[in-house]
Amino acid sequence: MQHGKADRNGASRPEETPPKRKRRKRRRRRAFVRDAVVEPTTKETPPQVDTGKPARLQAGRLGESEQDGQRTSYAALDLGTNNCRLLVAVPTRPGHFRVVDAFSRIVRLGEGLSREGRLSEAAMDRAVSALAICAEKLGHRKPRRMRLIATEACRSAQNGEAFIERVKHETGLTLEIIDRQTEARLAVAGCSTLVDRGTEGVVLFDIGGGSSEIALVDISRHRTPRLADHIVAWTSLPVGVVSLAERFGGHHVTRESFSAMVDAVSDMLDRFDDGGRLSKIAAGGRFHLIGTSGTVTTLAGVHLGLARYDRRQVDGLWMERDNVDRMIDTLLSWDFEQRKANPCIGADRADLVLAGCAILEAIRRRWPSERLRVADRGLREGMLNEMMAADGAWRRRRQTGRGK
Fold first, then answer.
1. FRET label pair with 192: which of 98, 204, 247, 352, CA 20 to 30 Å apart?
2. pLDDT 10s digits, 254-281
3. Does residue 229 sit in the same domain as residue 159?
């Protein structure tokens, strides 16, 4: 029976069914892979508990003390030629994660490597000390999965494998020495969300301490969710800020010695045949550079005039060609003490930053661009992205209703 309402004359009329509300379609953001969120500032503190024996931590394996469902964190560690870095994060909404712990320390593992071909005892001691802190953090966090990598210093050192064994014995951490192609891919995966909307081509570079990885990315055709799928060429230069500074000097850098550094890196780039894969795209203007390294983030911090380095202001910053030129010229006009006094450079980078600028300048000459995007992210974020995606972390959180 249909119920009705009386009209103005008292006659009964059918009750009108209210129209159904149209569901608004959510516009999907066009982005590649996963977003890396802001990394918290973490103080470097020594381990507070000395158990006498190192906790045995195997990359990719679950700990024995907690059930799978109790742990949602993932960890990524990158031991480079200059830095030791750790991120621990938990997946949040699809494509995102939240950093719950972080650690970074300059250890200069590759100090003297270009001259001696071996890792020095002092450098290994510094690295092991930093890794012990990382092991303590990992033992406390008990991540669901983790990946612990070592790059150029361990790849090229005669005693690299012996050092890896020492790390395992003294800290319980099992490090994986990755090849250069993997390093380039992880850098791309970590910076995917910094590709500008409408861009058709990107040259992404990671200036390290002992090597520099460069990836050419063509996204002019059909785009897939993984930016790394669009790498059309890549190279790894056997030079980084530490090795270049040791070769040409990093304390007293003249304009002549700086030009010599740029020429040396340019000679290496000349041997890289990219087949002109991005030449047409670069000429069309829908093209930009992405730089992930301490060199680029330092330039950005100096450019912004920061009283203290702030990742939130630097990561994702756009720098125009003139800005980069001006900053390099400014650093060249400063002596070592002036560079050291700048809060975004400091004593740890004062002798390395101009070597990094020389590598950057050689890259800019090879692939001229009006814009450079600064990335304070890279290998660790790339590893976290890949582990969470492979593990179905975001899909699992949607199913349990926690992906908010």
1. 352
2. 999 999 999 999 999 999 988 787 888 8
3. no
